[in-house]
Amino acid sequence: MVKSIIDSQARPEIEGMKSEMALEKLQDTVIRCRKCPRLVACLQEVPAHKPKRFRDWDYWSKPLPSFGDPDARVLIVGLAPAAQGGNRTGRMFTGDRSGEWLFNALYKFGFANQPNSLRSDDGFKLSDCYITATIRCAPPQNKPLPEEIENCRPYFLKELDLLEKIKVIVPLGQIAFTQTLKSLRLTGFNTPSLSFGHGKIYSLRTPNSQFLTLITTYHPSQQNTQTGKLTRPMFHQIFEMVRKKL
Ligand code: SF4
Predict the structure, then answer these.
(1) Looking at ligand 1, which atom is closest to the CA of residue 30?
(2) Ligand 1 pocket test target in 30, 149, 153 with most atoms within 8 Å of CB
(3) What is the rounded distance in angstroms from the CA atom of residue 221 to the CA atom of residue 227?
(4) Cβ neighbours of residue 153 under 8 Å, at least 6 residues apart?
């Protein structure tokens, strides 16, 4: 989509590869990442405190790769993996409550082949959509430190570079929105200060004079869905907006 400032030292051989292969290599690099000692240590601890319902699970407990369609026009940006969700199943949003909402909406609007996914091997596939996150290791209390977000940013920047067809970005929640904007500015977007809220739509001019749409939403976390701050119709409205923009 855009040429970005990239941590090319992280994996110089990615440069020059075809996008799909380069994305795969990038995700291989992510899985082996150990840049955040606090998070790496925390991931090792999580399986020792499994809830009973997951006691038979062999937890993934490594950084989570992004996934989806390399030709996607829609990019979903989450905050971070859930300790008992994606961190358990090995795929972002898979097997957690936020994922139930997200996958259901993606299915309803034609971006996924199943309305939910509880395991990474259940055949769930995204179409025209790619899912990434602000950070890729589950942080304690879902609260990453600023330096951990910065450590993880080069992976997101590289994805922005490799996902050449992205037209619409949907950051889930305010932190993902703020961090997405920061990353876009680093890639050369001259974006003004934008306010967060549910259902806002912004048209941004890319450094090569094309347009990219940013659509904001509350995060489908239980904190929002169980309190009624975010309802299904509100969440589905976001994907209606996405469809209209494509
Ligand atoms: S959060 Fe990102 S940068 Fe930090 S260890 Fe995990 S993958 Fe690496």
Answers:
(1) 7
(2) 30
(3) 10
(4) 179, 182, 183, 186
Q: Which atom of ligand 1 is nearest to the CA of 39?
A: 5
The pTM assigned to this predicted structure is 0.92
Q: DSSP 3-state assignment of 202?
A: strand
Ligand 1 nearest-atom number relative to CA 135? 1
Please tell me the distance from the alpha carbon of residue 137 to that of residue 119, in angstroms, as a whole number.
18
Largest interatomic CA distance in the chain: 53
* Token digits of residue 67: 């996934």
Rounded distance from Cα 213 to ligand 1 centre (Å): 27
Do β-strands 129-133 and 74-78 pair in parallel, antiparallel, or remain unpaired? parallel
User: Which pLDDT value is given to residue 1?
Assistant: 53
* CA dist., res. 23 & res. 122, Å (int): 22
Angle subtended at Cα 13 by Cα 11 and Cα 17, rounded to the nearest 5 degrees: 120
201 by DSSP, 3-state: which?
Answer: strand
Inter-residue contact 19 to 3 (CB < 8 Å)? no
pLDDT at 142: 86
142 CA to centre of ligand 1 in angstroms: 14
